[in-house]
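Supplementary Methods, section 5.1.

A reviewer requested that the exact input to the structure prediction be made available. We therefore reproduce it here, unchanged from the version used in the analyses.
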Amino acid sequence: MKKIVIFMALAAVAFASCEKDKKNNIPLPPVPNQVELITTFKVEFTDVNGVLPTVSALFVDVDGPGGNNPTAYDTIRLRANAMYNAVITLLNESVSPAADISVEVQQEGLDHLFCFDISSGLNLTINKTDLDANNFPIGILSQWSTGSISTGTTTIRLKHQPGFKTGACDIGDTDIELNFNTELN
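The structure derived from this sequence is encoded token-by-token as follows.
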């Protein structure tokens, strides 16, 4: 009889504890950013006037960060005093067939933002030309306006900003960040 009373008392405490959690409506912790493996990063530049040849800059690291060195890390070489439309393509080529991560970034545009930083002395202006449903830029599409002959570095970062995207580059997780040597000739 004593065991039954103790068992009933423990059961009542356990039941009351469960009810308390339901009353407090404790939220589950947020799901962490599931970073996609990006093995290939390509920027393709097309002259807006259709006169200059198309230019591509490629970064390829098939095994991802921390393994072997990248097999390609191009310099961005553009004509001085020109204007280019640019398109970024992201791939995961560690799987077959390769996964086009840029499609996912576009579909989840409310949570993603490409950020461009130009080193001092590089005569370049970059404007993002694609927008998400809240009219914030995404940056898969952009327009690059080159000035006079110069060299420097263009840093391109993909920011993941789920639920708090404002168009600012100083918030959120970084999915990938690349520093491309850049030459305007």
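The helical segments are 2-24, 101-107. These observations are discussed further in the main text.
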